[in-house]
């Protein structure tokens, strides 16, 4: 119980530190985002109108910094992430909520599938090392070394085209109206096939390699020899003893992957112009949309912390040593 309380305290402190850093970063960046917005719109505003914009975006220089900090916390507690410069006057939360389902559907499903498939194949390759399963290792080693975005460009070159079923960009066909109907869902699934295949193949290779190496290490432990000596079946020793202990390092990696789902595979979404959070962040950086960048960074940070907390809970179940004092 004390272990769990310590972890909760650690994550609360880390979340506070992340939110505080997220508050100060836009204020330390050179330049003036409000003046950049005015210049972009080529507007001629009087001093009162300019001051109103500073107040609207939470950058009122007439207020002390500590008061801005308290106001920022008050906005967060009410779910207010500010207003987007690019999509003004739309709130940042509304902009993020429109792109978040795309990233969760694409990166979330592919991350879970790649972990399950890669871990399963890694267990088999590590347990039956020296067999035909090892023949896939050179291929997985090569695929894991290829960057996501480069692999995506190769997939577009090989599989996308005028007569192909794989669209090369976008989230759905231009003439389709978003909604819960067959036409839109079918179009969205079709546009997600190529980026999903890119993420699945690239990330699955890494899970295979890491799990295979851990299985080889665990197989030489004494408790595996004792399990065989007790007459347990080979399948039970592989899954109940070797795989369960070899899985622990992968749990941490999977937790980080779950947290980064919100951020999306940024370069993959850029290559395929997929309307997810990663592509939204790319557009925000190009437009110097500080509130939108700030909101996306905050969502990504909190997602990583939540995923790591879930990993700690999984450790409590998988590793009995974490449930004991001293």
Automatic annotation (TrEMBL):
Keywords: Membrane, Transmembrane, Transmembrane helix, Transport. Signal peptide: none annotated. Pfam families: BPD_transp_1. CDD domains: TM_PBP2 (cd06261). The keyword Membrane applies. Gene3D superfamilies: MetI-like. The chain crosses the membrane at residues 9-29, 100-123, 135-156, 188-209, 254-275, 295-318. It is a multi-pass membrane protein. GO terms for cellular component: plasma membrane. It is found in: Cell membrane; Membrane. Residues 100-311 form the ABC transmembrane type-1 domain. GO terms for biological process: transmembrane transport. It comes from the Bacteria. InterPro entries: MetI-like, MetI-like_sf. Its main location: membrane. SUPFAM superfamilies: MetI-like. The keyword NAD does not apply. Belongs to the binding-protein-dependent transport system permease family. This is Peptide/nickel transport system permease protein.
């Amino acid at each position: 119980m004390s272990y769990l309380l310590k972890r909760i305290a650690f994550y609360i402190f880390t979340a506070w530190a992340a939110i505080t850093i997220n508050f100060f970063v836009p204020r330390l960046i050179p330049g003036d985002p409000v003046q950049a917005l005015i210049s972009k719109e080529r507007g001629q505003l009087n001093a009162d109108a300019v001051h109103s914009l500073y107040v609207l975006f939470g950058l009122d220089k007439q207020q002390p910094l500590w008061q801005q900090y308290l106001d920022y916390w008050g906005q967060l507690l009410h779910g207010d992430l500010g207003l987007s410069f690019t999509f003004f006057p739309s709130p940042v939360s509304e902009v993020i909520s429109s792109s978040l389902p795309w990233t969760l559907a694409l990166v979330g499903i592919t991350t879970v599938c790649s972990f399950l498939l890669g871990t399963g194949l890694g267990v088999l390759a590590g347990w039956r090392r020296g067999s035909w399963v090892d023949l896939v290792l050179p291929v997985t080693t090569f695929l894991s070394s290829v960057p996501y975005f480069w692999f995506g460009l190769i997939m577009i070159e090989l599989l996308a085209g005028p007569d192909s079923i794989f669209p090369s960009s976008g989230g759905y066909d231009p003439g389709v109206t978003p909604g819960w109907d067959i036409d839109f869902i079918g179009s969205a699934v079709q546009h997600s096939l190529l980026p999903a295949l890119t993420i699945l193949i690239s990330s699955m290779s890494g899970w295979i390699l890491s799990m295979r190496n851990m299985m080889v290490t665990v197989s030489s432990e004494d408790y595996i020899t004792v399990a065989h000596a007790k007459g347990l079946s080979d399948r039970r020793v592989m899954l109940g003893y070797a795989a369960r202990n070899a899985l622990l390092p992968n749990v941490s990696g999977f937790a980080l992957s779950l947290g980064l789902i919100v951020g999306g595979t940024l370069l993959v979404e850029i290559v395929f112009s997929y309307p997810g959070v990663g592509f939204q962040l790319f557009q925000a950086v190009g437009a110097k949309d500080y509130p939108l960048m700030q909101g996306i960074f905050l969502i990504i940070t909190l997602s990583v912390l939540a995923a790591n907390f879930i990993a700690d809970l999984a450790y409590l179940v998988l590793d009995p040593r974490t449930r004991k004092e001293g």
